[in-house]
């Protein structure tokens, strides 16, 4: 098989790139290790920056997002029994975020891809990018007992943190930066109305908590837990009790409880790989970087990578210019590092660190107190939260 752009990974990064390329008349093939239902079964984030919403519209895949997404003009931070409102729209000249699940983004893009008749190979084993340091790269994979080959002009690794693309790069060509946090997030999903109409990020001596949602009838809640904890230790009742303990009464009393249908513990990590281009192989999304979920940046960074990369491919094919492709890694990393900083900052400010001494705790408390009390600091928080410009 031969294509112009071979994409490894059918998550939001790969699907968004594929759809934009298809609309621009650039042939592309998607290869994933697993199948559609498996991908759609993953529970992931759900806060979209305005830039990402605009890209879904550009991809002509925003019908459901525009109909069912919940625009949010702000959120609350809970501290010492009180709520402090962050007026995102007021602080950023009217910018806002939209609540819409990553699972739904993925499904909408998959539906478009199927309608486009673009080639997707699911359940492909041992996917491997080859010869990307030379003029004629290709991908090998195994399926149904046979080995297959896709020749391409370019390969894009959108295969997530554990994917094959970054691992195919010789270690000496790659620099990585990492921070692993000493706690995880226990998440619960339930078909109950959210406690409030906006998100609440809670700081408490017992640990961080977050009230989020997927819709007006589906809530997503999180609790900071030690890395040594296990989801089996948490009955639904124990979760709801602990959540109420960490939140002001006005939020706790408004929580509607119900049976969970998903409960899991996720570790928190910051990670960046540099550069994001190796000859004719490009990395995008989680394949190149991870943020802790506190600033809701993971999915949005995938979208900004695809913005820069798609512009590069379009210029390569339509205008015979490689200037944007040549600038991809530097442009993407400049925005990524700012989001890494923001996610790290939100995480350190709002969580409880067991190894903190009394000085460290006071500093974290002062950081948050200052942020809440200063219009300049709240503006900095808001402009990062709604998303820095592309
Ligand atoms: N070969 C082929 N496909 C692979 C391989 C592999 N070796 N490894 C992983 N994949 C596939 C996965 O099955 C998945 O469908 O690559 C896809 C990667 O998707 P995501 O992990 O969702 O990554 P990305 O598309 O970059 O989306 C970023 O996802 O993890 C969240 O916080 C993150 O919200 C952000 C978003
Ligand atoms: C979520 O709804 O899953 C969510 C929302 C905001 C975050 C992180 C996760 O910061």
User: What would the principal axes of the Cα set say about the shape?
Assistant: globular
Low-confidence stretches: none
Beta percentage is 25-35%
Helix share bin: 25-40%
Q: Please, what is the average pLDDT?
A: 97
Please tally the β strands and state the result. Answer: 20
Q: Termini separation (Å)?
A: 35 Å
Radius of gyration: 21 Å
SS class = alpha+beta
**How does the major sheet shape up?**
8 strands, mixed
Q: If strands are numbered along the chain, what order do they take across the biggest sheet? A: 6-5-14-15-16-13-17-20
Query: Which molecules are bound in this entry?
Result: adenosine-5-diphosphoribose, P-hydroxybenzoic acid
The total of helices stands at 13
Report on the architecture of this protein.
With 390 residues, the chain is of the alpha+beta class. Helices cover 37% and strands 27% of the residues. The chain has helices spanning 12-23, 36-40, 50-58, 63-68, 88-91, 102-116, 164-167, 236-245, 249-252, 298-318, 323-350, 358-373, 375-385, and strands at residues 5-8, 28-31, 47-49, 70-72, 75-79, 82-86, 97-99, 119-121, 125-130, 138-143, 146-151, 154-157, 175-190, 200-203, 209-213, 219-226, 260-274, 277-278, 281-283, 289-290. Strands 6-5-14-15-16-13-17-20 form an 8-stranded mixed sheet, with helices on both faces. A hairpin with a 2-residue loop joins strand 18 and strand 19. It is globular, with a radius of gyration of 21 Å. The mean pLDDT is 97. Bound molecules: adenosine-5-diphosphoribose and P-hydroxybenzoic acid. P-hydroxybenzoic acid binds at residues 45-47, 199, 212, 220, 293-296.
């Amino acid at each position: 098989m031969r294509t112009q752009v071979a994409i490894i990974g059918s998550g939001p990064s790969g699907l968004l790139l594929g759809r934009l390329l298809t609309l621009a008349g650039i042939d592309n093939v998607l290869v994933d290790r697993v199948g559609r239902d498996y991908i759609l079964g993953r529970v992931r984030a759900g806060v979209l920056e305005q830039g990402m919403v605009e890209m879904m519209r550009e991809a002509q895949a925003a019908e459901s997002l525009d109909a069912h997404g919940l625009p949010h003009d702000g959120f609350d931070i809970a501290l010492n029994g009180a709520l402090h409102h962050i007026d995102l729209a007021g602080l950023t000249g009217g910018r806002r975020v939209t609540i819409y699940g990553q699972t739904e983004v993925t499904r909408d893009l998959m539906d478009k891809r199927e309608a486009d008749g673009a080639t997707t190979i699911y359940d492909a084993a041992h996917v491997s990018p080859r010869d990307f340091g030379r003029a004629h790269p290709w991908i090998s994979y195994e399926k149904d007992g046979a080995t297959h080959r896709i020749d391409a002009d370019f390969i894009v690794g959108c295969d997530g943190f554990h994917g094959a693309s970054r691992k195919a790069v010789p270690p000496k060509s790659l620099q990585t930066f990492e921070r692993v946090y000493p706690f995880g997030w226990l998440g619960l999903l339930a078909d109950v109305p959210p406690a409030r109409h906006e998100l609440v990020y809670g700081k408490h001596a017992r640990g961080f908590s977050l009230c989020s949602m997927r819709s007006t009838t589906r809530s997503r809640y999180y609790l900071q837990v030690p890395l040594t904890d296990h989801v089996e230790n948490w009955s639904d009742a124990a979760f709801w009790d602990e959540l109420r303990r960490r939140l002001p009464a006005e939020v706790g009393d408004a929580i509607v409880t119900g049976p969970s249908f998903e409960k899991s513990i996720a570790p928190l990590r910051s990670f960046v790989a540099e550069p994001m281009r190796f000859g004719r192989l490009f990395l995008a999304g989680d394949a190149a970087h991870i943020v802790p979920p506190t600033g809701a940046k993971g999915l949005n960074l995938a979208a900004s990578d695809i913005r820069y990369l798609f512009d590069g491919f379009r210029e390569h094919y339509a205008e015979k210019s490689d200037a944007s492709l040549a600038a991809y890694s530097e442009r993407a990393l400049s925005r990524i590092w700012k989001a890494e900083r923001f996610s790290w900052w939100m995480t350190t400010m709002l969580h409880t660190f067991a190894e903190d001494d009394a000085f460290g705790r006071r500093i974290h408390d002062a950081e948050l107190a200052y942020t809440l009390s200063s219009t300049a600091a709240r503006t900095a928080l808001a402009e990062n939260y709604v998303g820095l410009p592309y």
